[in-house]
Every structure is written in C-alpha cells, then in structure tokens.
Amino acid sequence: MADTRALEKAQEFVNFVNYSPTPYHAVDTVKVGLRNAGFKEIQERSNWKEAQLSKGGKYFVTRNGSSLIGFTIGDKFANGNGISIVGAHTDSPCLRIKPISKKNSEGFIQVGVEQYGGLIAHSWFDRDLSIAGRVYVNDTKTGQYVPKLIKIDKPLLRIPTLAIHLHREVNTKFEFNKETKLVPIAGQVALDKNEAESTKDSKSCADDPDLQLSPEQFESVQSVIQRHNKSLIELIAKECDVEPIQIEDFELVLFDHQKSTLGGLNDEFIFSPRLDNLTSCYCAMDGLVRSGENLSEQTGIQLISLFDHEEIGSMSAQGADSTFLPDIIQRLTKIDFSNLVDKGVSVDYFHETMSRSFLLSSDMAHGVHPNYGEFYEGQNRPQINLGPVIKINANQRYATNSPGIVLLKKCATLAKVPLQLFVVRNDSPCGSTIGPILAAKLGIRTLDLGNPQLSMHSIRETGGTYDVVRLCDLFVSFFENYTDIDSKILCNI
To answer: Which of 278, 247, 240, 232 has the alpha carbon at shortest distance from 97?
Structure first.
C-alpha cells in the first residue's frame, strides 16, 4: 500500500529537480525554501557583527551563486559547542556551451559544447535538450553588470545518432569521438533569417572599409553575437528581457527537457536527471528547515553546505576544496554568543568547535543493478527503496569509520529509518566524495552516505520514491539529536 507522506515528499523533490537544471538554479531554489522558512540571507562581503547573528537565528550565505551554506543557531548554544553538518553538491555531469560555439555543418546550425564531469555520454544522444544557466547583462539604467538565470522551457537541441543501416555495429560497439560526434543540432541554415543576413553582411563588410570597427568600437573579446549563433543569442536575450547587445557573457549548459517524474507500476521509482546530487541538496534543505522549527532546546549549530564543482574535483573558489566552509565556520567561532568576553577582546573557538562537530557527507550511492549483479560485492548490495546507504572504503575514498556508524545508527533508530551498507569489490575502482576532502581540511569527523540509485551520471537516472522521505527524516534526527548522542560515543580514550 502506498505511503501517502512518502509520495508527497517525493513529488516535492521532483518539483525541486524540475526547477533546478543548473547549480545556479539549485541554489536559487534552496534560497526560496529557506527564505520561506524564516532564514535571513547574509553576505560574505559584510562584517558579521554580533548584533547580526544571534542564538535562535536562521541564516544562509552563498558564494558564486552556485554554492550555499545555511545554518541555525540553537537557543542554548555556547561558544565551543559542536556543529552538525550535512554536506552535498549542486552540480551534475552535463554538456556546457563553448566560449565560441557557432558551428554549421551540412546545412545544419550546430552548437559547440564541452563535456563537464564524468557523464555517460551516449545517454545524451536522441534526447530533447534545452539550455539553462547564468547570463551576465549590462543594465543600461544603472551601469551595473547583473546576473540573470534562464531556463528555456522548449526543446531546442538534439544530438542525433547515425542510422543502423549506415553503422551496422551500433548495437555491439557504440564508440564515437566526443569532439566531433557529440555536437547538437539547433536548426537549419536555410530556414534561419539571421544566417542568411550574416552571409550578406560578411561579404559586404569585407568589401567596404566603412563597415570595419573603428577604434572607438574596440572590443577586447568578440561579442557574444559574433561568437555564437545570432538566433540563439536573440532567444537568450528574450528570456532575460534585454536586447542582445546587452549580453556580456554567460555560463550555459544543456539539460534534459523531459521532466523529472514518478514512475513504476506502483510509483516506486523516480525517473529523473540530476538525482546525483540534487537528492541530497533537497533532503538537506528539508532537514534543516524542519529541525529549525524549534531551536529552544538546541545547544549546537545545525548547518548544510552545498558545493558546486564536486563532479570535477571540487578545486575551485566555491568547491568543497575551497575556503568556503572553513571561512564560514571561522567567522562563526569568532563571535561571542555568550557575551562573556570583554568587549574588544578577540575570541576564537574554532578548534574546540571542530573537535565537537560532525559531517555527514551525502552523495548518491550505487543501488544493485538487476542486469549487472556481478559488478557488486557479494554481501553489500544496497536496494532502491530500502533506505539510505552508509558508504565504506578501507582506502578512505569514503571517510566512514565505526564511531560514525554508531552515531548514524542511533539517529536512524530514533527516526525509524532503515540503513544499508556498501563497499565496492576488491577488483573494482571506487569513486569518492566531498567527505574525505572536508575531513582532511577541517579535521572533522565524517561519515559518507547517500540514497541508492541506478544509472548514475546518465542523463536519466533512477531512484527510489520511498528513499527521499527517509533521508529527510534521517537528517532531521541528526540535527536534533547529534549533541546528545555524540556525548555518549567515546573516541579518544
């Protein structure tokens, strides 16, 4: 019998994914959820005075518009107390439009794209694709350069496969060059008015010196209209409600236009792009919001940290290997929340706080595949819809150890959430997460976990409907019960 609450929570998540085709959109969607729950936005550029942050408060801060840290401060928090952290990432493997993308071949208008992350490239063929991301425009009224988010809700592009009649081995060996064959079509030259006009303009410009750029028109880099298909730029400008000439630059990616949805005979599956790792982002937000509804008895800080660029190694100004999380924690630990220190005297509780803190690194896990069971370890075979997975690796590709497992077990028991265990085979490679990176950077105890899924890094992935609410409930329990449970787990004895 269907669990109504689980289905409702899964549908909320499906909506979250559909609103969030890029890391910028994911962060924007989380911001809306946090604001609606009473969270206040603060800026890294501002001076965090004691009057701005207070016990019982709810806050969030972003970096680059693609990474976000949100936190609540318990009413009974005291300097040096621990922080319970859930970490996740906002990015997913995809195709990104190249800086100069204008291409034509065999009468087709094409768009040059660059691979981002470890995507399963063949899954992008024969899909309805569209464009989303961040566009910087020149606000002619204020003179400022303003970012705008766009999500074009229309199938725009497609990467067609070659017919089997021309490639007889397509069902036994589908190999292709990612530079020359993974190129989407967007239209036809003969039917595009701008392509016809550009042909005329290029000829007249070459013959007439008066049409050449004057020194006053110097541009350090070619304009976006010169670097990309003009009809595409006009469509982007329309989405931004500006003129094409106002577009300065952009970071745009292709995404699957087909919506995320519930599926299966009993709605037990989620068929969706970007399950890795929007699942963890949504559940982290939900857990923080729900646990923040009553901070009266909380003695710690509850925090979520959602990073961009995990899929390409996390080494960026806003990735998990950046200063973002350490910077925020250091600023928090320099505020005298207890008002016990004389004014003008600096405080710094960073090291005490870190030794009392814990990170749940939440990224998706490999559910056992019914057609490829031989790729999984014999006893550790997580099933979709049987609960979150604790990920373990002796070589520390995951940061889990036994005290962390004890902690998570107790949190899960209180929330009545079943857990599963996973290790890779000894003859198989193992992926990694932000967990080991942050554990080493902060010296913080860490456990890696995530919901099980199939088809990880495909353009369409498969997850479990009933696992969403379980991960949400687990995070609520972690935030609400961490301090009490942690005090009973002895580690350094």
So the answer is: 232
